Amino acid sequence: MTKTVLNDEILKTYPHHLNESIVLNLCKQNYSDGTSFYTLQDIRGNWKIEHASRTIDKLIKQIEHEISVENEFLDTPYISGNPEVLDVYQKSISRLKRIVKDMEEINEQK
Fold it and tell me: What is the torsional sign of CA 99, 105, 107, 110?
C-alpha cells in the first residue's frame, strides 16, 4: 500500500527572540495509513532531520537533549562573563522549553 500525505498542519509558531520575523513552526503531516510525522520547520520551509520523527516523543527527547547541551554552555567563562551572550542563550533555552511543553500537551491529546 502506498501512503500519501493527506495534509500538512502548522500546530504552533515560535518567533525568534531576537527577530520575530524568524519563526520556527511545529508541523504535523498526516498520512493515508493513519500515521503522522512531526517536525520543526524554519522560516524557509526547511526541515531539520534531527527535528523530525514519526512520534512526537522522539522529537521531545531531541529538543530536551539540545536544552541540556545549551545549559552546559551557560557555565563557560565566555557565556557567563558576557551578559548579552548569556541573555541570548537563556532566551533560546526558554523557547526550546516552550516547544517541549507544547509538544507534551499535544502528545497528551492523542
Answer: negative
